[in-house]
């Protein structure tokens, strides 16, 4: 195998004899190496072969954006999930779950907690995925010495549910309507900021994923419980004034009064997707 790209000392992109791209992880696998060198196969610990091209490209972006340790950790969680679940998981799980857990750890370090308003529904309707989520919290604690709250087990379960390719999709009409609304919301942001959004960025991917879950809740008439303490929202409203004003435009477009929590998440995502 030949090295095609070096992400850092412990992660590289290689090509095998069949010209297939493989992401390789291992301690020191990229250390003092150059593009075109042979891969030291004795240093290989984990390999990623993502067949979906878009997922593969996003995963490579992810490797440049978050710690290698988080990628390795999520690989172990996904491998565990694959062994427990008797369904095929979409390649995107390597992107979405890794991105989510890395960001959850960042928020945890900053003392912020993201409540999961669907926690009881997830426990009831998706017990197997939730149990995997709880096991994932153990993986995370063993690796980082950080014990994330139970809500995160629910969030991890949601990613696993979303990645199951055999889960029945919504009606075609619903998907078409949802797609149009997502595009309308993105247009509101573009016109408010007078910018073109980078559709290949991770922040864009995060935002669209959030909107998909948001519309799933709307379709099922599920509501996020309103938090009594809106301290975080007040802080965000002051710090990201333009993003908050943009969120209000989106709320008006939706013709729906959003909870403080939904307003908070939308405002943060708008701020992130319009930066860099």
Automatic annotation (TrEMBL):
Q: Which residues form the PRD domain?
A: 65-170, 173-276
MF annotations from Gene Ontology? RNA binding
InterPro entries to which the protein is assigned, alphabetical: BglG_antiterminators, CAT_RNA-bd_dom, CAT_RNA-bd_dom_sf, PRD, PRD_sf
> What is the official name of this protein in its record?
Transcription antiterminator LicT
Key words of the record: Repeat
A GO BP term here is: regulation of DNA-templated transcription
Lineage, top-rank taxon, reads: Bacteria
């Amino acid at each position: 195998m030949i090295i095609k790209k070096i992400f850092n000392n412990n992660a590289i992109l290689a090509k095998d004899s069949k010209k297939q791209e493989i992401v390789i992880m291992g301690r020191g696998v990229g250390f003092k190496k150059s593009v075109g060198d042979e891969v030291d196969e004795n240093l290989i610990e984990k390999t990623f072969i993502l067949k979906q091209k878009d997922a593969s490209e996003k995963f490579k972006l992810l490797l440049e954006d978050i710690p290698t340790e988080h990628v390795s950790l999520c690989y172990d969680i996904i491998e565990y999930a694959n062994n427990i679940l008797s369904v095929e998981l979409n390649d995107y799980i390597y992107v979405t779950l890794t991105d989510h857990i890395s960001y959850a750890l960042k928020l945890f370090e900053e003392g912020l907690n993201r409540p999961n308003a669907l926690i009881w529904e997830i426990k009831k309707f998706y017990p197997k995925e939730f149990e995997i989520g709880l096991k994932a919290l153990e993986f995370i604690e063993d690796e980082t010495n950080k014990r994330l709250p139970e809500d995160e087990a629910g969030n991890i379960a949601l990613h696993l549910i979303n990645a199951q390719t055999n889960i029945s999709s919504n009606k075609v009409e619903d998907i078409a309507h949802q797609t149009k609304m997502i595009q309308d919301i993105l247009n509101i942001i573009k016109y408010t900021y007078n910018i073109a959004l980078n559709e290949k960025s991770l922040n864009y991917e995060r935002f669209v994923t959030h909107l998909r879950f948001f519309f799933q809740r709307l379709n099922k008439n599920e509501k996020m419980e309103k938090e009594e303490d809106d301290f975080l929202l007040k802080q965000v409203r002051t710090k990201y004034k333009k993003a908050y004003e943009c969120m209000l435009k989106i709320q008006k477009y939706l013709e729906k009064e959003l909870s403080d929590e939904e307003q908070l998440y939308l405002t943060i995502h708008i701020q992130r997707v319009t930066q860099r």
